[in-house]
Amino acid sequence: MLTVLAFVVGMGSLIAFHEFGHFAVARLCGVRVLRFSIGFGRPIYRWQRDPNATEFVLCLLPLGGYVRMLDERDGAVGPDDLSRTFNRKPLAQRAAIVAAGPAANALLAVLLYAAVQWIGVLTYAPIIGAPLPGSVAAQAGLAAQDHIRTVKVGGGESQTINAFSELGWAAAAALSSGETLTLGVSAKENGIPRERVLRLDRLLSDTGATTPLARVGIVAPYMRPVLGELLPDGAAVSAGLRTGDLVLAINDRRISDAQQLRLAIQAAVVQRADGRWDAQSDDWLVDRGGRALTLSVTPALVANPANGSVVPYIGRIGAYIGEAPTGVLRQSGLWEGLDLGARKAWQTATMSVATIGQLLVGDASIKQLSGPVAIAGVAGQTANLGLAPYLSFLALLSVSLAILNLLPIPVLDGGHLMYYLWEAAVGKPVSDAWLVRFQRAGLFALLMLMVIALSNDIARLMG
Hints:
Blueprint: H1 2-28, E1 33-48, E2 55-69, H2 91-119, E3 121-124, H3 136-139, E4 147-153, E5 159-160, H4 164-177, E6 181-186, E7 193-198, H5 212-216, E8 227-230, H6 235-238, E9 246-250, E10 253-254, H7 258-266, E11 269-271, E12 277-279, E13 282-288, E14 291-297, E15 300-303, E16 313-316, E17 319-321, E18 327-330, H8 334-361, H9 372-385, H10 387-406, H11 413-426, H12 432-461
Helix pairs in contact: 1-2, 1-9, 1-10, 2-8, 2-10, 2-11, 4-8, 8-10, 9-10
């Protein structure tokens, strides 16, 4: 229920703000607005102050909306209303009305990101856990407990970072631009600063990872390899492990952080001579309240969730792995929050545009496209985490909506702006015959995008 509510409220709000942008600028330009509709399909609510006022409509499907303005192309208009028609307004005013929708979504994204800063963001130090084996982060020589001090994307300027989330944004920027990511690192052992260069040209376009940092091999901040809550019937309890045990080594191999421990547990499987798979027993050295203990641990065998993996099974011990890192709640003032909100919205927009470019030239996989099912799932997850994560997700969605509508696809705002660009260049509007052709092509393009996005959603649901 929360997922449905978070999706409907979120999408409805973003669409309403988008259409309000068109509505407000149209009214400022003296255009009569006949209908303001949120959603498509059967109307479930109508309101109109009087027959000459705008009709406000709420429809069943909150997947879009529209503002219908008085226009001679839609039918005869009385002499008294000719000056209030959209088609008779100057080119600059028509373009402003069309561009106001995406502009409203961009403004909303800034305000939402700013609100997150005002509420407060829980930040973690940019100290990384063990990189995934074989990842570009591991190839660059990064290790558990490396403290990332600075980041540099491509040939840009080196910037100091103070939070793990900032490292995620740097990775996203590097991935979207295809540039190298240079990290200034100091290790726990000696604290001597050094540079590590992540070669993103060695990265496959589709790794199955869900975040930019995970794509380069950095899964989470550093967490001590401490056992948390144990399942009563899990392998950890059967082996004599307890909550609070600090894992020091497995089979004499030192365990440095929680991510390394998770990978070791998952890898504790062996294939027998007859081809069948079994869980492997390992000797764990743990610290329990200052006392060293050696225990034999045999994980349970479960199906490997990674599609296409050579190893069909992984190990599980039925325990929460890792001691949560210490976080600091950081709140911003009014103007600092607005500044950070604008910066975050701009970063999101530039990365989104770069990703679209990569999709067009084949440098990124179309599997990254998500449809309403995936969006609803993430909306529910972020709403469950709290107000700030939910607002961050809505801000990201608002930026995406702005950019999507600015694409030069007929039927979208960007397509109409292209018509006006043509009109400004040649001195006359696009002919009705060509408008019909473009509208059909635009509808077909949107339909294909929807089919791909929904197919990706279904594929994710089916694992």
